[in-house]
Design brief:
about 130 residues, two-stranded antiparallel sheet
């Protein structure tokens, strides 16, 4: 899909990305997929942000969620027992969608003149922020 087509999808209120913990992908009228808040998972997202605000480390947050037997976003295939890991929590805390920012064109590549290399630029925010 071209950049213009992707922008049209975004302007219709549909998502351009994949899954996100705390949300469900729901088919939208006229095609595309919209994000709808999943109440139980959204409560866990808020709890993770609160635990961090209270000074807990990523490792401590993961241990707390595992003690409470909270189901992680994507359980490991090789493990019998699904568990949270600090890196999953770190990536969740970095995700701008949780603060209301939609990111598109995260990577913008520009060719370097005279070479066959590409240069990676910065992301643009869809909501102008």
């Amino acid at each position: 899909m071209t950049h213009r087509g992707l922008e049209g999808v975004l302007l219709r209120g549909c998502t351009l990305g994949g899954r996100c913990y705390g949300y469900r992908n729901v088919p939208a009228e006229g095609g595309g997929v919209k994000l709808v808040i999943h109440p139980e998972e959204a409560a866990m997202v808020r709890r993770i942000f609160e635990l961090l605000a209270n000074g807990l480390s990523l490792k401590s947050i993961a241990a707390e969620l595992n003690r409470a037997k909270v189901s992680p976003p994507r359980p490991r295939i090789t493990s019998k027992h699904a568990s949270w890991c600090p890196t999953a929590i770190r990536e969740m805390l970095r995700r701008e969608l949780y603060v209301g920012r939609v990111i598109r064109n995260r990577s913008r590549f520009t060719k370097v003149p005279g070479t066959n290399r590409r240069w990676r630029g910065h992301a643009r925010r869809a909501n102008g922020g």
